[in-house]
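Case 295 in the screening queue. Each case pairs one protein sequence with one candidate compound; here the compound is heme C. For every case the pipeline is the same: read the inputs, emit a complex structure as tokens, and attach any notable structural observations.

Predict complex for case 295.
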Amino acid sequence: MSKILKWLGIALAGLAGLLIVAAALVFFLSESRINKTYVISVNTVPVGADAETLARGEHLAITRGCTDCHGANLAGGAFIDDPAIGRISASNLTSGRGGVGNLYRDEDWVRAIRHGVGPDGKPLLFMPAQEFYYLSDEDLGALIAYLRTIPPVDNVPPEDAVRPLGRILFLAGKFPLIPAEMIDHDAPRPEAPEPGVTVAYGQYLAVGCAGCHGQDFTGGPIPGMPPGTPPAADLTPSGHVADWSEAEFIAAMRTGVSPDGHEISPVMPLDAVGAMTDDELKAIWLFLQSLPLGA
Ligand code: HEC
Ligand code: HEC
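Case 295 output:
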């Protein structure tokens, strides 16, 4: 009996030891990527200040989702707060206390938005720069011009804390913690299409949809979302959305109700997508129609 207990004790101690080693490994592997320093050669973009540019910048801040994470007043705050995954705070982008507005030079804005890297060279956590990397110089310049004019708000967002499950999911490639890793920082700049109701401009606008609907737009479970989140819809001609008309698509994005009366889940960023102009939504519709049939 005592022999069995002794062996059991040794086995349990061994197991505990293994767990400690595994936990330490997870911590150090993730921490070394979080603390990596990136050296980015930043190309600044022309930043205007006229009324038309500022209005364009505000439109981009809403339709590209900046306000979804950074808040309607762009003063930041925690937007993921989970005891197992961790706490991720969006930064205060204003020039109030706790904000970066007064500290940021043009090149800092470009490095953060286009490359997902802070002024200290460290990667910005969960900031989807891989989507904003494609913004044209004109659009990025308008966005920066607008961000410089937003009213200051005092707000110190809570510190980030990436907890064990968040680190494990990150190491397994299931949690997009470091967008800077998804960008080829030295590649030649991609050509941005002229604005218009074209497939190419629709693709430019739909880059942000792919984060949830998938690179091939066939939908399915969304990476990093808690269980119970509805899967993103198939937006290719093989999905149910292809049976809609263009007008029904635009109405669904504006009202949040699809043609069959289904109320679209709030996971879908309707504030951002619904704020797009008719021409922008028409371009996205054209692009979706042009996609190959999903599986
Ligand atoms: C999915 C959520 C999300 C969206 C959408 C998003 N951000 Fe962020 N952003 C973050 C998070 C989280 C951080 C903080 C990263 C950190 O602290 O490591 C951040 C940081 C930043 C920073 C760096 C500030 C600093 O602390 O140095 C800038 C600048 C920024 N975002 C601008 C933007 C702009 C402009 C947009 C829209 C084009 C945008 N963000 C959209 C989540 C988001
Ligand atoms: C944050 C994740 C997310 C992003 C980003 C996103 N979607 Fe969605 N979308 C969803 C989810 C989840 C659903 C399923 C909603 C439901 O079943 O109620 C959905 C559903 C849809 C539907 C079908 C609605 C219905 O009633 O069947 C359309 C159309 C759509 N999205 C278009 C878009 C377009 C266009 C973009 C980009 C401009 C986009 N989505 C970006 C998550 C997202």
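Case 295 observations:
- The radius of gyration is 22 Å.
- Residues 209 and 226 are 19 Å apart (CA to CA).
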